[in-house]
Design goal:
The structure is a single chain. With 287 residues, the protein is α+β, with helices and mostly antiparallel strands. The protein has seven helices and ten strands. The strands form three sheets. The protein has a four-stranded antiparallel β-sheet. It has a four-stranded antiparallel β-sheet with strand order 2-3-4-8, covered by helices on one side. Helix 1 (4-18) runs parallel beside helix 7 (207-226) and helix 6 crosses helix 7 (207-226). It is globular, with a radius of gyration of 20 Å. The mean pLDDT is 94. It binds a DNA duplex (16 and 16 nucleotides) through helix 6.
Length: 287
DNA sequence: ATAGAGACCTGTGTGC
DNA sequence: TGCACACAGGTCTCTA
């Protein structure tokens, strides 16, 4: 479900509420998420304090006391919900998929809900979590200075796949997903069907297209984070509020709508399927 | 080595 | 109303 901006928003929201708290118990209702939870999951967490929450790509990294790290990924449908005492969030509308309940000293609790169970969690040592295969192959974050045209160009020259697929590959840039790839390519005026290697000039220099693409990726991710991510369907943030970026979609889920680049462009947004997933783009101004 | 298809799950919306 | 099918924000694994 969530891409980088949603996970970043969730990370900030949860961090604000939970940092410093001690886990008093963990109730495991279903241990069979995408992967089974590790042995003694609840026991190993009980008594630890949440020191700090961070994010890498679409992963949440929970830095706990005694040098333990909880890594969680929300998959397509995972969400966290904070309950404070007996507030309204205490009566979820979907209790059947509340798989984990974390209780904190002081009365607060955190519920993990995930209908499709594509999400997963694991416990790793603080010293070596970043060496895990989930993290070792990841590309740079689009939020920092590491992502540049000079980084991306040589990588693209070796790829024969459509640029859409290459951008979804987490080894290229970490954290992009189906929504923001479509949005970034529209902003960069690049067709999602274009073979990645053809974005790069024949002299191997990044050229205008790669530069435009890098700028578009960085900007769309920054805009989405600033809007608190996107809420589709009944998806909410940890406090029950909604992200707002879905109101700023240019092409995603807008097949048949006029290209927002009007009046210069008279195209119509189109939906195509690439490697089994929907892509939205304007065939007129994206080349 | 790389690219594409299939698999993993459940819910929702559409059309007959 | 019931049923079948397509589709959903991700990633891993298997096959060419």
């Amino acid at each position: 479900m969530p891409e980088l901006p949603e996970v970043e928003t969730i990370c900030r929201g949860l961090g604000q509420e939970l940092e410093g708290l001690e886990i008093s118990s963990v109730e495991v209702r279903r241990p069979d998420l995408r992967f089974p939870l590790p042995e003694s999951f609840a026991e190993r967490l009980t008594g630890r304090r949440i020191r700090h929450l961070s994010r890498r790509a679409k992963y949440l990294i929970w830095h706990l006391s005694s040098d333990l790290v909880l890594v969680s990924h929300l998959g397509m449908s995972g969400s966290f919900r904070i309950r404070v005492g007996a507030d309204i969030q205490a009566s979820p509308k979907d209790p059947a998929h509340d798989h984990l309940v974390f209780q904190f000293r002081g009365g607060r609790s955190l519920v993990y809900n995930d209908p499709r169970r594509f999400g997963f969690m694991d416990l790793l040592p603080a010293a070596s979590w970043a060496d895990h295969v989930w993290f070792s192959g990841l590309g740079p974050e689009p939020t920092g200075n590491e992502l540049s045209a000079e980084y991306l160009a040589p990588l693209l020259t070796r790829r024969r796949s459509p640029i859409k697929a290459v951008l979804l590959d987490q080894r290229t840039i970490a954290g992009l997903g189906n929504i923001y790839v479509s949005e970034a390519l529209w902003r960069a005026r690049i067709s999602p069907r274009r073979t990645a290697a053809t974005l790069v000039g024949s002299d191997g220099h990044p050229g205008v297209r790669v530069t435009r693409l890098v700028d578009a990726v960085r900007k769309v991710i920054a805009d989405a984070i600033a809007a608190g991510g996107s809420s589709i369907g009944d998806y909410t943030l940890a406090d029950g509020s909604l992200g707002r970026f879905q109101h700023q979609f240019s092409v995603y889920d807008r097949a048949g709508a006029p290209c927002p680049r009007s009046p210069q462009c008279h195209g119509t947004v189109r939906r195509i399927v690439q490697s089994g997933r929907s892509t939205y783009y304007c065939p007129v101004c994206q080349r």
